[in-house]
Every structure is written in structure tokens, then in C-alpha cells.
Design brief:
CATH class: Alpha Beta
Order of helices and strands: EHEEHEEHEHHEE
CATH architecture: 3-Layer(aba) Sandwich
Strand content: 15-25%
Number of helices: 5
Bound molecules: S-adenosylmethionine
Structural class: alpha/beta
Shape: globular
CATH superfamily: Vaccinia Virus protein VP39
């Protein structure tokens, strides 16, 4: 299968500081003439996160497989996956599916490529953030996001970009851990917020991602809330669903 890694060219018209978990101040689209600097993950935590998620992939997939099978495309098409990580979602796609992986952390790329090869996926890695995706308007059938909108710097901007690249009728398939409504889990989420963000490169334990998706201009949004039963209490409250452009 074809595999490529795309790094955007770097002419920038205005200064934008965008490490992973950095700052994106300006709304921008592919039609803009500006481009963004490649984000720079912490070299130690960037690598550790890749190893951690590689070790945890089987466990996480075992718990989320039902949701993934329900919402991911069964017939391939053109897929963009935001924050694809090591590629734990690729096994759920039909072989030969074209996947554009928007993955700004280069420490994930080697494992991502290997996973794509194992599952016969036609992969192109885009080393850019979800806030500034280098794909054309209406060029994608499905966007996949799992455990990513918790981590990106600007979820509303990422959702604008997802909406832009999806064709009319195209679908965003998502699974995200979110703020618990109240009680002990919510208190734990608040308690661990800072160390968690540090360890997991910007991951927020308590985002209201359902509200962000509802506000993103999709024609229909279907969301199921569920509990991720594990000892990782801060990510216990989860949502899965589909939003149609
Ligand atoms: C918790 S991991 C989830 C990886 C994978 N989606 C999964 O389900 O295992 C979060 C991912 O989001 C990526 N990420 C962080 N900031 C991002 C951004 N601004 N745009 C796109 N991806 C980002 C990270 O590099 C990492 O791969």
C-alpha cells in the first residue's frame, strides 16, 4: 500500500505559535495564503505517549470496538483521521481505504505507518495540526476523531476545519472522553487536570465536547454517552456518535 508523509511548506505571513498544546490565535482556512509552522511536541513526552498508546491499544480497542464498528465507515472512501496516533482505528476500516492521517506528533508516525501496512490501508500522513488541515474543501467522505478533541488546542477551530473538508453529506465519527456531569468522577477530573495535561501533551479531562460538536454547524448530530469501565477514572465518561455535514 502507498504511504507518504507530508510536511507543509513553511512560508508564513503572520506569526502563529503552535506547538502541540500551543497557541492558535487566528482563524484560517486552506484558501488562506498563509501556512503554519510544524508543531513541536516535547521530545520525551511525545515519545512516551506513543509508547503508552501502543501498549494500551489492545485494551482500549477491546472496550471501544463496539462503538468503532458502529460509527466507522464500512465501505472505505476517503477518510481523514485527526490525531491518528499509532493508528489503532485503522484495523476497523476496509483494506485499501484511503486515509489522510492528520498527526502533528512525529513520534507516532513510524508506528502509524506500520499499522497501516499491516491492515492494507492507503495512508498519507500530514504532519500538521487539526486547526489547519492541508486538505481541500469538501474533499473527504468521513472524518474520524477518537480521544483527540480533548487534546487539541482549539476544538472549535478543529471542528471548523473538519466541517470544511467534509463533503456535503459526509460524516464526522467521534469517540471522546468528556467532563462527567457531576459527582466523584467530576471531582477527580478537576483534581488531576494539570498533571494529566502535562503528561498527555495537553489532554483536558473535563471538556464539554458534545456542546462543541452541536455548535459546529452540522445538519444532524447523534451522540450516545457511555461509561468507559476501567481504572482510568478521569476518562470514564465518554461520548460516541456521528455528525453529518
Ligand atoms: C490521546 S491521543 C489519541 C490517539 C488516537 N486517536 C487513539 O484513539 O488512540 C491524542 C492524539 O491527538 C494528537 N494531537 C494533539 N494535538 C493535536 C492537534 N492540534 N491536531 C491534531 N492532532 C493532535 C496527538 O499527537 C495524539 O496522536
Amino acid at each position: 500500500m502507498r504511504r507518504r508523509i507530508l510536511q507543509r511548506p513553511q512560508p508564513i505571513a503572520s506569526t502563529v505559535d503552535l506547538p502541540i498544546g500551543g497557541i492558535l490565535n487566528e482563524e484560517r482556512h486552506m484558501s488562506d495564503t498563509t501556512t503554519l509552522p510544524a508543531p513541536s511536541p516535547n521530545p520525551v513526552r511525545g515519545r512516551l505517549n506513543s509508547v503508552f498508546f501502543a501498549l494500551m491499544a489492545g485494551y482500549i480497542n477491546q472496550r471501544l470496538a463496539g462503538h468503532k464498528r458502529e460509527i466507522f465507515p464500512r465501505t472505505g472512501g476517503v477518510v481523514a483521521e485527526i490525531g491518528a496516533g499509532n493508528g489503532p482505528n485503522l484495523r476497523f476500516l476496509p483494506p485499501k481505504t484511503t486515509v489522510h492521517a492528520i498527526e502533528p506528533n512525529p513520534y507516532f508516525h513510524r508506528r502509524l505507518e506500520r499499522t497501516a501496512a499491516v491492515h492494507g490501508i492507503d495512508l498519507t500522513i500530514h504532519s500538521v495540526p487539526g486547526e489547519a488541515i492541508d486538505l481541500d474543501d469538501a474533499s473527504v467522505d468521513t472524518v474520524i476523531c477518537t480521544w483527540v478533541l480533548c487534546t487539541v488546542q482549539d476544538p472549535a477551530q478543529v471542528l471548523r476545519e473538519i466541517h470544511r473538508i467534509l463533503r456535503p453529506g459526509g460524516r464526522l465519527a467521534f469517540i471522546e472522553h468528556v467532563a462527567a456531569p457531576h459527582g466523584t468522577v467530576r471531582r477527580i477530573q478537576r483534581l488531576v487536570r494539570r498533571p494529566w495535561q502535562w503528561a498527555f501533551e495537553g489532554c483536558h479531562t473535563d471538556r464539554d465536547t458534545a456542546a462543541a460538536i452541536h455548535a459546529a454547524g452540522f445538519v444532524s448530530v447523534k451522540i450516545t454517552e457511555f461509561q468507559f469501565r476501567s481504572s482510568f477514572v478521569p476518562v470514564r465518561t465518554q461520548i460516541a456518535g456521528l455528525a453529518v455535514r
